[in-house]
Amino acid sequence: MKSSEMALDYITRAERTLNEAKNALLSKDYPLTIKRSQETVELSLKAVLRYLAIEYPKDHDVGDILLQAVKIRNLPDWFKVEVDFMVNSSIDLAKKRGPAFYGDESSQKPPSMLFNEPDGIKALKEAERVYSNCKKLIKA
Q1: Are 17 and 36 in contact (CB under 8 A)?
Q2: What topology does CATH give the domain 3-139?
Q3: Which end of the chain is more exposed for a tag (fewer CB within 10 A), N or C?
Q4: In angstroms, rounded to a whole number, what is the distance separating the alpha carbons of residues 129 and 134?
């Protein structure tokens, strides 16, 4: 399988997880909204890296690899302008991924006590923007 085929598969999966994030928000399941938003960002960024045929570590946050790619690859200016936003979103959502799934075990707080509607809305908006940027680059 070629990198471009992998990229297209990843961006398709990112769209599916984005739809799951939207449904979770509608259901007022804010932790799941955050988790699915993080997955959308992760898959979207990994789709771009696959598209560029760049290997990345099997981590949830690959923002640092994207930053390096922008420095060495000739990417459109519109995409470069969005990179800082996408990297920051990746970092933030990757940090929230575990608590959104497991809660805070040290304080015995479940995920539903850690995240609220504004958290879910913010995560979803970020995921939509990252996905849109990555899809635009891959489909260009």
Answers
A1: yes
A2: Four Helix Bundle (Hemerythrin (Met), subunit A) (1.20.120)
A3: N
A4: 9
pTM summary value: 0.94
Q: Where exactly are the structural domains of the chain?
A: 3-139
CA distance 12 to 67: 23
Question: By the 8 A CB rule, do 22 and 124 touch?
Answer: yes
Look at residue 109 and give its three-state secondary structure.
Answer: strand
Residue 90 CA to residue 101 CA, distance in Å, equals 16
Tell me how crowded residue 13 is: count the other CB atoms within 10 A of its CB. Answer: 16
103-107 own/partner pairs: CB under 8 Å, 24+ apart: 103/31
Distance, in Å, from the CA atom of 31 to the CA atom of 112, rounded to the nearest integer, reads 6
